[in-house]
């Protein structure tokens, strides 16, 4: 009787590996189906409205002081001043008239975007988990502890690192193609580090959470990278906070289900 048990247990790492690339593809397919459910279509509105209101509030409060500060700073940028003087001398236009608003928008709009993602992670993800959990993962019991507090803290620190990192790396945008690469990196960081936790925090015990984040770190980052690439398309901004949450929920809960199946097999006499 020992050999069959050994074969089943030894085959499980290969089965668990399907939660890698194949698991990512499966999660995106399942999330697409889930997204068209009426409850999830309504859930799209909350983070989108929060991000929109956040953008308007940030622009109203900080646009003028930020652009004034950037104008002062730009006056000390010798390269910009020389290029601006050259353009004006040719009778064209002043680059500062366009550069300052672009930089200000590049600072304020992503901050409103990360606010919308944080709202989705803390307030919408529980709705997502109840939706997919009841339909496709009913057998995955909830064993998480302090889920809300952990989710809020995770959203705060990820948002803080994103905002600071985004602003500090803005000067590198002047070096092609760093603007695109940095944007992709920071949004991949935000999606991965924020939503992977919220996808499993209610169901996985602390030990299971640690194992899943370690075992499937690459898969979580691949999902974040794909979502970050989709984020380059403005129309995707409307549904991406909820859709990305659905993808992470399907991927994380499927990985948790496989982990528990693995433990059951290993525990068999």
UniProtKB/TrEMBL annotation:
The chain crosses the membrane at residues 40-63, 98-129, 150-168, 174-191, 219-240. It is a multi-pass membrane protein. It is found in: Membrane. Keywords: Membrane, Transmembrane, Transmembrane helix. The keyword Transmembrane helix applies. InterPro entries: CysZ/EI24. It comes from the Bacteria. This is EI24 domain-containing protein. It comes from Bordetella genomosp. 7.
């Amino acid at each position: 009787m020992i050999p069959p048990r050994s074969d089943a247990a030894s085959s499980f790492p290969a089965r668990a590996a399907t939660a890698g690339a194949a698991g990512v593809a499966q999660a995106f397919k399942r999330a697409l189906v889930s997204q068209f459910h009426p409850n999830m279509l309504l859930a799209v509105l909350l983070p989108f409205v929060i991000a929109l209101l956040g953008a308007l509030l940030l622009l109203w409060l900080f646009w003028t002081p930020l652009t004034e500060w950037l104008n002062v700073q730009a006056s000390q940028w010798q390269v910009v001043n020389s290029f601006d003087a050259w353009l004006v001398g040719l009778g064209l236009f002043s680059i500062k008239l366009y550069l300052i608003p672009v930089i200000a928008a590049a600072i304020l709009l992503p901050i409103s975007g990360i606010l919308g993602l944080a709202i989705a992670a803390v307030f919408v993800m529980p709705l997502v988990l109840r939706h997919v959990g009841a339909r496709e993962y009913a057998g995955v019991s909830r064993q998480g502890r302090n889920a809300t507090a952990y989710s809020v803290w995770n959203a705060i620190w990820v948002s803080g690192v994103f905002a600071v990192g985004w602003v500090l790396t803005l000067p590198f945008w002047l070096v092609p193609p760093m603007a695109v690469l940095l944007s992709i990196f920071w949004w991949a960081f935000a999606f991965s580090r924020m939503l992977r936790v919220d996808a499993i925090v209610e169901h996985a015990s602390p030990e299971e959470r640690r194992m899943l984040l370690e075992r499937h770190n690459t898969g979580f980052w691949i999902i974040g990278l794909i979502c970050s690439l989709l984020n380059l398309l403005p129309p995707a901004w409307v549904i991406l906070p909820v859709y990305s949450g659905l993808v992470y929920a399907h991927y994380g809960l499927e990985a948790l289900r496989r982990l528990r199946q693995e433990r059951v097999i290993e525990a068999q006499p």
